[in-house]
Structures
1.
Amino acid sequence: MDRNAEIPRVALAIGLVVPLAVVMGVLLVSPLATPTVALVGLTFMALAFPLWLRWHHTLLVCCWNAAVVAFFIPGQPPVWVLLAALSLGIAVVSRTLRQRSDFLWVRSLAIPLLALVLIVGVTVCIRGVGSRALGSELWGAKRYMGVFGAILGYFALTSSAIPPARARWLAGLFFLSGVTAIFSDLAFAGGPAFYFLFLLFPTDVAFNQAMSADTLQRYTGMAWMAQAGYWFMLLQYGIRGVLDLRRPWRLGIFVGLFGLGLFGGFRSSIILFGLLFLTQFWFERLLRTKLFVFVSLGALLLGAGVVGFAERLPMSVQRSLSFLPIQVHPTAQQDAQGTLDWRLQMWRTVLPEVPQYLWLGKGYTFSGTDFLLMQESMRRGMFTAYEDTLVSGNYHNGLLTLIIPFGLPGTVAFVVFLCASWRVLRRNYLYGSPELQRVNTFLIAYFTARLIFYSVFYGQFDLDLMVFTGVVGLSVSLNGGVASPGTAQSLPVPRPALP
C-alpha cells in the first residue's frame, strides 16, 4: 500500500483527536458538572458507534428491564428509553440504505400504538409540557417519555427477528437484567463512599431503604432482583423443571429468591408471584395433574410454618405478609394498613373527576410549585397523606392513571392493544416453534399475570406500558412475527415428571 495514501488519514485522525482531547481536558476540570457529564457520555457513545451498528438490537433486549439510568441526559431517563430510540433510528436508516425491510410488521399491534401516540401528542399540545430537569415550573415530561419510549421500544424490538440459536438466552436476559436493581441498595448500604454508583443506578430504588432505615428496613432493590431471578427460572425451566427433584438446587434457589423478594415489604410481591404461578400452571396444563396436588400440599405446609413464626420474621417480611389473616407485629400492620387507607380515600376523591376528563385527558403536566408547597403543607399536618399524589397524578391505580390523563380515546386504544397482544401471544404459544414452546408459555403467562395485577391491584400507565409492549415485542421478534397453524406443528404437552 502506498504510504502517501495513509498521510491524509493520519492527518484527519490527528485533526479530530487533538481538538477533542483538548476540549475534554478543559471540561474535566469540573467533572461533575452537567455539561461535562453529558459531553463525556455522548463522546463515548460516538466512539462506540460501530458496536451500536452491530449489536443495537441485542443490547436493547438485554437492557429492557435493567435498573440503569442514562446519567448524561437531563432528567436521567432509564437506559432502555435511550437504547430504544437509538435502535429504532439505526434500523430505519439501515432499511433506507439497504432498500429492504427486516421489520416484523404486525398490523393489529401497530395501529393501536400509533393511535395512542396521536392521542398522547394531542394531549401534550393542548395541555402543555414542562421538564423539571430543564428548569421549567411545569413538570411531567419524564412520564411522557415513559409512554413514548415504550411505544418506540416495541417498534425497535420488532425491527428484526432474533436468530433461533440465541432466542432462549436472549429471552432470559430480557428478564434477568432486572437484577441490576440490587446495586442501588448496595450503594446506599455502603455509605457515602459508594454514592457515586447512583450516577448509573436510580436513587428512587433505594428510597424505601432510606425512609425505613430506623423502622421496617425495606429493601426495594433486593425485591426487584429476586423477582427477576425467579422470572428467569420460570422462563428457562418452566414449573416442571423448577420442581424436578433430580435437580433439587433449582427448587432451593427458587424458594430462596421468593423469600428474598419479601424483604422489600411489598404485599404486591406475594400477589404477583401467586398470579404468575397460577397462570404458568394453567398454560403448562398442570392444573389437572398430580403435580398440582403436591404443590398445593407444599404451599399449605409452608403457610403453616409462616403462621407459627410470622412475628419472629424481619419487619419488612412481616409487612409483605400483613394482608394475610395471620398475626404480625403491630408496626408492620399499621404501616401497611395506613397506605391502603389513604389510597382508598384518594380513589374516592378522584373518581368524581373522571367525567371531566372523559374526552380530553388531563395529561401528565402539573405545577412543580404546587407540588412542593403541598408536600411542605403535609409535613406540617395541614393536608392528608395523599394530597401531593393528587397533584402529581400518580393515583396508584392502573385504570385511573390511564383514563384521567388520556381520557376515553386513550383507554380504548390501550384496551385494543392489549386484546391484540394477548391474541398474538396465544398464537405464538399454540403454533410457535417447538424449540420456543417453554419461552412462549412463560411470555403469555407473564403477560396475563401482569395484566390482572395492573387492572385489579396496582398500576401506573407510564411505567407499566413498557411491560406490555416489551413482552409482546419480544414474542414477535423471537417467533419472526405471528405464528399460524401452518408455520409450525404444535406438539402435545408431555406428561410432567412427578416428584
2.
Amino acid sequence: MREGTAELEKVNAALKAEIAERLSAEHNLHRLNRLYRVLSETNQAIIRASDRDTLFNDICRIVVGHGGFRMAWVGLVDDESGLVKPVTWRGANNGYLDEIRISAREEPQCLGPTGTAIREGHISVCNDMLNDPRFLPWHKHAHKHGFLSSAAIGLKLNFKAIGSLTIYGDEENLFSPELIELLKQMAMDISFALENLDRQKTLREKDQLLIQQSRQAAMGEMIGNIAHQWRQPLNALSLIMQTLPVVQEMGELTREYLVSMEKQAMQLILHMSQTIDDFRNYFRPDKEKIPFSVREAVSRTMTLIEDGFRYLEIDVKIDAADNPIIIGYPNEYSQALLNILSNARDALSERRVSNPRITINMRTENGTAVVTVADNAGGISEKIMDRIFEPYFTTKGTNKGTGVGLFMSKSIIEKNMGGKLTVRNTGNGAEFRIEV
C-alpha cells in the first residue's frame, strides 16, 4: 500500500512538473510573440519617423503597449556631465526617473544595466533587481515601483554610444536568452534608424545652406538689377532738379512749367517705387500652389532684368505659341527662370558674342507647359554637360559665381513642382527646357 502511494505521489509530482514546464514554456512563448509584435511595430515606427524624438517616443509606447512591459524610457548622455538624461518614457514612471541618478561614466554608484549598456555598447540585463548587487543603489526605488527585472539596450550613432533604451518587467527572470536575442535585433534596427535620421538631417541642413546661398546670390543679382532699373530715372530726376535754377535765372519759370516738371518727376518716382514692389514680390515666399500664367511669369521675370540685358545689348525675343497655365509656385518658378536667364547672360557677356541673343519660347505639349530658353553663346562643353546642375559647380570662378543657381532651378522645377529641367546644345548655343 505504501509502495503504491509513493509511486502515485511520484507520478503526481512528475505530472505537476510537466504541467509547470508546459505553462512556463507557454508563458515564455507568449512573451516571445509579444516581443515579435514589438519588433514589427518598431520597424513600422522606423519607417514613419521623421525625427529622433518621434522615434524614441513611438518605441517606448510600443514596448509598453504591445510588449506588456511595466515601463520603458530612453535616456541620452550629456557630454559635459556624463549623466544619462531621460528624453521620453512610457508606463509606470510615477517619479522613478526623478529619484535615480545614472551616469555613463564608470562610477561606483553607476554600474547598473543602463550605464553598463552605454559604456560597453551592448545589452545589459538584470533578472533580479531586488537582489542583484549591481542594482543595490536602486533596490528601494525598484521595489517601490514594482520593477523586478530590467534590460538596457545601448543606443549607437555612427559607432558612438549616445544613450540607452531601458525596459522594466514586473516578474523575475523575465529576459530569457531567446528574448535577449530579439532585443539584440531590436538594438540593430534602432541603430540603423538613428544613422538614417542623422543622414537625413545632414542632407536637410545642406539643402538649407544651398537655399540660403542661392537666395544671397539672387539678392546680389537683384541689387544689380535695381541699380540698372533706377539709373535712368535717377539721371532724369537729377536733370529736372538742375534745370529748375537755370530756367528761373532766365525768367521763364512759369507755373505751367513747374506743373509739367512736377508731373515728370512724379512719374519717375512712381516707376522707381513700382520697381521696389516688383522685387519685393519676387522675394516673397509662396505658401501654397496656385494656378498662374506662364506668359505672365516670363514677363514679370523679364521686367526685373531687362535693363541689365539692354545695357549689354542682348536681344531677347519672346515667342508665345499660347499661354500655358501651371499649378504651382509662381515666385519659385520665376526664380528658376531668372537663374537660367542670368546664366545665359553671363555666357554671352564672357564670350563677347557679337549680336548676342536669347530666345524664350513657350507652348503647351500634350497638356504640359513647356518653356525653352536658348542663347547663341556657343553651347556647353560636353565634358561638363552632366555636371552643370550639381551644387557648387561653376565655370565662372570663385569671384563670379557660387554654383548654386542652376542646382536650385532644377530643385525648384523637379522637387517642388514635379516638373523636369534639362539642357542640350543646339547649333548656336545652349537650350534649357522647363516642363511642368
3.
Amino acid sequence: MGFSAPVFPGPGATDVGRPPGQPLGIALVVSNPSQTLFPLVTREVVPTRTGETILVRRQGDDIVFFSPLCHLPVGSPNLRIPLSAAPRAARLASEGRATVGEYRDYRGVLVLAATQYIPLTGWGWSAKSTAQKPW
C-alpha cells in the first residue's frame, strides 16, 4: 500500500528558474498492510452494548465479516454467511451502496445502520446502533 504527496517550497523560499506552484518533488510512503492496517482493523473490539462498526467483503457466494464482532466470542473465526441469507446492510455495503436505514444485523436484531463501500479494497463497512427508538 502506498501514498504519495507533492512537496512544495516553504513560504518565502525562492527557487530561481522554477515556475511558481511547481512541486520540488514527491514524497512516497510505502506500507505493508499486513503490518499496519490489518492489525488495526482486526484487533479486539471495545465492548459496547449499542454500537458496532464492521468490515465486510463478498467472497464468491458468501459475505465474510472481516472485523471482530462484538457479539461473538473473542478469537472466533471470521463469520461467513451465504449471500442469500446475509444481513441486508452487509450485502448493501459489499455491493458499494451508501445507505442509512433500519436493518436486521448478523444476530437478527433490528438496528439503525449506515453502509458505505471502500473504493479499491473490495470491502464495505457498516456502522450500526441497537439503541432503543426514542419515540
4.
Amino acid sequence: MWRNDYVRRMRESTVDMGHLIDGLLELGRVSRIDIRSDRIDLTELARATAKRLQELEPERSVRFVIGGGGEEQGDGPLLGAAIENLIGNAWKFTRDQPDACIEFGSIRNGGQTEYFVRDNGAGFDMAFASKLFGVFQRLHKQTEFPGTGVGLATVQRIIQRHGGRVWAEGKVGEGACFRFTLGNSTDARG
C-alpha cells in the first residue's frame, strides 16, 4: 500500500519538475531572443486567451470584460505570452470565486497607455508585492494554487524588454490588478 503512494508522489514530483524546467527554459528564451517589432493588437491577444481558457474548462463560469483599443508596436509571440500569463493567473486565482470576473483594458495615464488585468479572486497581501515578480517566489501555497513561480518573472522580463514596466495591486480575498506599460520602441532592448 505504501509503495503505491510512494510511486504516485514520485510521478507527481516528476511532472512538477517538468513544468518547472519548461518555465525556466521559457524565461531564458524570452531573455535572449531578438525582439521583432510588429503592430500587435493586445485586445485580440486577450480575447484569444480568454477563449482558450473557456474551451479548456467549459464547466467554469467566468465573466470576461475585455476593452478595446490595445494596439502597440512589439513582438507578438512575446506579448502574447505575457498576456497569457497574466490572464492565466487571473483564471487560476478566481477558481474558488462563484461570480468570477476577469477584466483586460487600458487607461491613459500621464500621456502613456497603461494596460491592466484585473480579477476578483484570491488577491494577495500588498506587504509581499515585491516578491511577485521574482523567480520561485509564490504568495500562495502550491496546494492552494498550482504553479511554478516562474510565470510572473517571465512577464516582467517580456515587459522590460519592450521598454515598459509591470506592477501589481491586490487585497487578500478581493482580487488583484496587474498593470503594465510598454515603451515606444522595441529596438535592441535586452
